[in-house]
Design brief:
The longest helix has 21 residues. The relative contact order is 0.16. This protein has 17 helices and 17 strands. It is globular and about 75 Å long. Helix 10 links the parallel strand 8 and strand 9. The protein folds into two domains: 149 residues, Aspartate Aminotransferase, domain 1 (Alpha-Beta Complex), CATH 3.90.1150; 277 residues, Aspartate Aminotransferase, domain 2 (3-Layer(aba) Sandwich), CATH 3.40.640.10. With 449 residues, the protein is of the alpha/beta class. Helix 3 packs antiparallel against helix 12 and helix 5 runs parallel beside helix 6. The strands form five sheets. The chain has a seven-stranded mixed sheet with strand order 4-10-9-8-7-5-6, with helices on both faces.
Length: 449
């Protein structure tokens, strides 16, 4: 039995935990094992958001009491995020819609600097493709084109951008080789090294500090995608040498459309904002020249998603109250139980090493289609998992030992997705308990009889 003090019934609403779905076996409480994609909100987050909305007013734009109160809470959220990740005192917290938005923002800033980008082969597409796009656009230069030329232009953007993005790979144990990363940094002028703090498919958590030290040794900035990490494990930007950090609210129990990029004031003050418009410029002259302040408001265009920001603040405060050591212990016990039973089933192919075990367990039932199994888990057992390539196609190809993708490419071009390789991923969070794990174990055992 789990002896940890964590109790999902105290953290989430009854409506969320007792959400009922129709299955072929009747009505059952839904089991959410797709938490690596998105998490439910904490009950306290829901309550605080409702309270905030009662007094909600225009952030940074009004003279009224509601505007002032809303602005104060919104700005406090930046300080809570900085404290949680131990950012530097003068670091900025720039809000986005999610991690993808944060990476796109960072890619825009770095596109003005000389050098290339290093991204690992296990990165989510959101941590890889934005760099290709912005670098490709930059390399095209000043020329503008007609609409009928755009297909060729888009191909050039991908081609040119890809030449600026260098990928570093994992070894046969699906771990990073520091010497390999070092060679890439030494042989190329790298302006920023991008690292996922935790793989969204295998759960592998690399040595962040050591990789950051390597990046700095060769004069590169160090950006960490922490969206799969900071709600499960402690992260410390200063101790780990992280220059920029991105994350999403929907993965940390605050699914209200918020995300963020944390980064250096000195760096970010040098650039025009990623997005520009009303609210983040103090004055526009008669000639159309826009004046700007060098502060984080300069990067906050339009009316911000204040609800998303304050939801993340409250969620992170709750996680801190629980204690990340307690979170790790609770989630690990659940993951270990599922890992143990799946590893004992000879008809199940597990794609995670025990030493990499975190909160995600990728697997397949031998000889069975991953998407169909995921659908059966839902329709027959009321269990929500995810099946597919998880936006990390290179990892999936490597895990499934796919060396020739010609047939896959041809089928996708025909609009057929059946040959796209995939796995099933069960992912655990604080909303789960032992009964959830027992239900998926029972389901897999029945499906592999």
């Amino acid at each position: 039995m789990l002896r940890n003090k964590i109790n999902p019934k105290k953290l989430f609403s009854k409506q969320i935990l007792n959400y009922q779905v129709k299955t072929k076996r009747g009505l059952v409480n839904y089991v959410n094992l797709d938490n690596a994609a998105t998490t439910p909100p904490f009950l306290e987050v829901e309550n605080e958001v409702r309270k905030y909305l009662i007094g909600y007013g225009s952030v940074h734009r009004g003279a009224g009491t509601k505007s002032k109160i809303s602005t104060d809470i919104y700005e406090r959220s930046r300080e809570v995020i900085k404290d949680y990740v131990n950012a530097k005192t003068d670091d900025y917290v720039l809000y986005s819609g999610n991690t993808t938005g944060g990476i796109n923002m960072a890619a825009y800033f770095f596109s003005f600097l000389s050098g290339k980008i290093m991204v690992s082969t296990v990165e989510h597409s959101s941590s890889w493709l934005p760099w290709i796009k912005v670098e490709g656009v930059k390399l095209l230069g000043e020329k503008q084109n007609s609409l009928n030329e755009m297909e060729e232009i888009n191909n050039q953007i991908q081609k040119f951008g890809s030449s600026q993005v260098i990928q570093y790979d994992v070894n046969e144990n699906f771990e990073f080789d520091l010497s390999d990363i070092g060679r890439g940094l030494k042989q190329n002028k790298i302006k920023v090294l991008v690292l996922t703090a935790s793989s969204n498919i295998t759960g592998y958590c690399p040595d962040i500090k050591s990789i950051g030290e390597l990046a700095h040794k060769y004069g590169a900035y160090f950006l960490v995608d922490a969206c799969q990490f900071l709600q499960h494990h402690e992260i410390d930007m200063q101790k780990m040498g992280i220059d920029f950090l991105v994350a999403s609210g929907h993965k940390l129990y605050a699914p209200y459309g918020g995300g963020f990029l944390v980064g250096s004031k000195k760096f970010l003050d040098e650039f025009l904002p990623y997005q520009i418009g009303g609210g983040n410029l103090p004055y526009i002259t008669e000639q159309g020249e826009f004046l700007r302040f060098k502060n984080q408001m300069a990067h906050d265009p339009g009316t911000p998603n204040a609800v998303g920001a304050i939801a993340m603040m409250y969620a992170l405060e709750i996680i801190e109250k629980i204690g990340l050591k307690n979170v790790e212990d609770y989630e690990r016990k659940l993951a270990e139980k599922l890992f143990y039973y799946l590893s004992k089933n000879s008809k199940v192919e597990l794609y995670v090493r025990k030493e990499h075990l975190s909160t995600v367990l990728p697997f397949n039932i031998k000889g069975k289609d991953s998407i169909k199994i995921a659908e059966i888990l839902n329709s027959d057992y009321g269990i929500g998992v995810r099946a597919g390539s998880f936006c990390v196609y290179q990892v999936v190809r490597k895990l499934l030992k796919i060396t020739d993708e010609k047939n896959i490419i041809e089928s996708v071009k025909r609009g057929e997705l059946e040959k796209v390789p995939g796995l099933i991923r069960a992912s655990i969070s604080l909303c789960n308990n032992e009964k959830d794990i027992e239900r998926i174990i029972t389901a897999i055992n029945e499906l592999t009889k």
